[in-house]
Design a protein that fits this description.
By secondary structure, the chain is mainly alpha-helical. 67% of the residues lie in helices and 2% in strands. The longest helix has 22 residues, at 233-254. The chain is globular and about 75 Å long.
Amino acid sequence: MKTQQPLLTTGFKRKKLPQRFQEILLSIFADSDLANEYSYAQMHYLMDMQIRIINYTQKVSDEEFENSLLAYLIYQNLNYAPLIKYIQEDLEIQLSAIYNFKEQFVFLCQREKYFVCLLEKRNTAFDRIQDSAKEQLLGYISACIVYHHRLQPPAKLMQSANSLSVEHYRLKLNIGADGLAYLLRLLIEAGVLEAEPRSKLLQFVSQHFQTAGIGDQLLSANSIATKYKQVVQRTAVNIRSLLKKMTKIVEANFDC
């Protein structure tokens, strides 16, 4: 499987996958060369999975690739402990950025609904002894929800969740996450938008903005942060066209 590693690495870098996510996936295939670490069934699963992921990086668009790949790995039941931990820690980071207790509960309910709706391939798994990736993640979120129930009466929580429909309105955009990240960068560099700390701003954006093509999925703050730092020319050209369009509207409205 070592011979396929460069293809994986290139694909991950091209898709701007977060560094830690890359390291976790690359490590499992690197470790698999030590045959005594895995069973024959696990080796067969990983060989097939490596090819599938390489194909996935080549066929799936860049738009929200991290979320898309995670959903695909859950579908393929890659219940690899470091990967499950990575997803759980990412949820913890997003949750910690929400200071309002009621909003935390709503966020957990949204994530629970998201994972429940994810498809799961039957009769396949990296580790057949452990629960599936989907079951482990749902169990984690359920435990978080139970914790919130203990801190506040359930009836009050549900009432709070229903009353937050306006608070949790997501601003729909007709541009992708790449464009949104670059637009935010321009606003910050132009002094229009205050972003200290920037991580909090990106967490807020990931919760309240819905870019084109992602449906009900939430944006990944890590993905936006990566796109913020690494802007490609195509994105810059698209945003420049958008700004020119705005300029023409101003000129038409005020004859200037």
